[in-house]
Amino acid sequence: MKKTILSLVAGAILTCSLNARSLAEIKAEDNIKIGVFADKPPFGFVDKAGNYQGYDVYFAKRIAKDLLGDETKVVFVPVEAASRVEFLLSNKVDVILANFTKTPERARVVDFALPYMKVSLGIASPKNAEIKDISELNGKTLIVNKGTTADAYFTKNKNGVNLAKYDQNTETFGALLDGRGAALAHDNTLLFAWVKNNPEFVVGISELGDIDVIAPAVKKGNTELLEWINAEIIKLGEEQFFHKNYDETLAPVYGNDIDKESVVVEGGKL
Q1: Parent domain of 242
Q2: Is residue 270, in this structure, part of any structural domain at all?
Q3: Which residues, other chains included, contact 252 with Cβ-Cβ below 8 Å and sequence gap of 6+?
Q4: What residues have CB less than 8 Å from 3, skipping those under 6 apart?
Q5: Could you give the C-alpha distances from 89 to 44, 150, 215, in angstroms and in order?
Q6: pLDDT digits (tens, 9 = 90+) for 87-133
Q7: Region of 269 on the Ramachandran plot (φ > 0 left; ψ -120 to 50 alpha; else beta)
Q8: In terms of domains, do 13 and 62 share one?
Q9: Verdict on whether the full-model pTM lies above 0.90
Q10: End-to-end alpha-carbon separation of the chain, Å?
């Protein structure tokens, strides 16, 4: 992990002459580039009509509406988990809203705004071979996405687990469906949704490690944009925006199985 962080910092130095767009530049160019997932329903995905949808996308559209007066002025940039930091460092996006968990390592190279969601790691496995305890993974293959908190957690705490790492969510879940691993570790909020559509699987471990937060991120030092986003999150809390977001994008997937208060963070306050 330290090598990865150092390499990202080194890469940032190479592009130091290219500053992130300021708030004034974003307004002048009349668009905001926001990195989201294209393959992680219900948080960020492309529907059959080719439109971006999901919890993060719903928030991104509101940012564009309040900043630029029109939600269609957001330019969605598809990212993968392992590329989120690099896309900020290289100025490919202004903001990352790709279900980005705040960690101390990431906070060294990007600036996180206030949180808008809570999350923990979970583990999904086949119902007929359910993994209920981490010790049951000893000597078995666990599937993870590169660059995720699950990747970082199990790279540090292998405990006899063999890791199979994939770049894209579609590859990761495809590997589980194909039986290339005994289980898959990912954000529990994503797994709860996925098993709804794949009932032959179950989230045998629903919380692993710490409860973390999801937050927007901007390039390190882009203080003006960061402060605007923080003020926006606080303002949106006054109208319970993220609860409405949950009702529109997550509740149809989760149903009554999940307590929204265990997921939603309103006004940036835990």
Answers
A1: 2-116+215-262
A2: no
A3: 42
A4: none
A5: 21, 22, 17
A6: 999 999 999 999 999 999 999 999 999 999 999 999 999 999 999 99
A7: beta
A8: yes
A9: no
A10: 27
